[in-house]
Specification:
Rossmann fold; GTP-binding; EC 3.6.-.-; Four Helix Bundle (Hemerythrin (Met), subunit A); 3 domains; Gyrase A, domain 2; cytoplasm; 440 residues
Amino acid sequence: MDHHNGETIFALSTGLGRAAIAIMRVSGSGSADILQRLCGKLPPARKAALRSVWQDARTQDNLLDEALVLWFPGPKSYTGEDGFELHLHAGPAVIQAVANALVEAGARPAEPGEFTRRAFTNGRMDLVEAEGISDLIEAETESQRKLALAQTDGALSRLYGAWAERLKRVLAHQEALIDFPDEDLPPEVEQGLLDEISALIEAMQSHIQEGERGERIRRGVVFAIVGPPNAGKSSLLNWLADRDAAIVSPVAGTTRDAIEVNGSLAGVRVTFIDTAGMRETEDEIEAEGVKRALFHVKHADCVLQMFAAQNVPEDVFPNAILIGNKTDLGSVPAKVLDTPVIPVSVRSGEGLSALKKLLEQKVESLTARSSFGAPLLTRARHKAGVQEACACLEAALQQDWPEMRGEELRLAMRALGRLTGHVGVEDLLDAVFGQFCIGK
């Protein structure tokens, strides 16, 4: 991504398509001159004003639209720069004409994430908060919205910042031990330092363990539906999806590839994956389907193992929810290998309400917080950073030389700093902000 922070950028911040209003967002040092060129006199800061939008307001050449205009002088703006918004009528011709006028006035179209990147560069937010903005835009469920909003509001940043402050104090004490080795510093200084390192390690390890819950909320809980052919897996998928997502047929082996359906349970995004029937087969395509089914079993958050009433399984996958289908054709055992069986009939609907309630409880248990109010880790990048910091602190405890311990503490500080973007993050920025939509 090529960045030109001195340039004035613009983008349509609302989606394309039929609508009443379209918001054109502009940011950069030339914003005041461009707004005056299009609309004449600047409106009062942060107050909506009705203005005529011209190709050139100085000559009142070519009226483009009548719009609400908002002027945001920096640094109290989203990006920290001067900027403005034009609330236009959303006709494609209007949008294109205003875009052309902005280019003619000296602005250029923004690149993905460039507005938020400028906000980060200008100190309006840190990297963790910026990622929260991206997650908030992508949020599809209530739990995703709450998680992203907490991150945008700085909950994770405050946690990492608090760790960094504690680590600064530890480093200060460590430097004192290094710089004044001949002074009779109280022995409790070093012991207090070691105790604080241990406490930080414990806090970080707890955060890492909670991280799986946060990542599940962000990406969704994945259920893999597995079992032998004709167990009713595709019928269950269709019921869960409330539509005919998979072909249902009495012919064994109809499903040969994984079929994914997204939905929501207990306010959390979920993905149900219907897999090929598991059996020995010489058909190469079906065998590949079985191989993929086993892959999904390994990577799913929960396995729904189905069997038909007349075909009780000999093995049960670890931590699987065992579903005995076709109770309208025969009875199913209460347990198989000490695993409780949920009796259902997808055809008649018997037991499906109880099954759905059980799935909701499973989703809640997989995403529930163990400590009230603690912000959840949400991304693999965050997890890796905290793990690195934790590993450095553990290494610091193993060092006998004060200088070596101090170096490990400094490495831990750098790992925390990269999380929020305060140190050594230039190589991360393109990857982070390139995922944003145009206009953010």
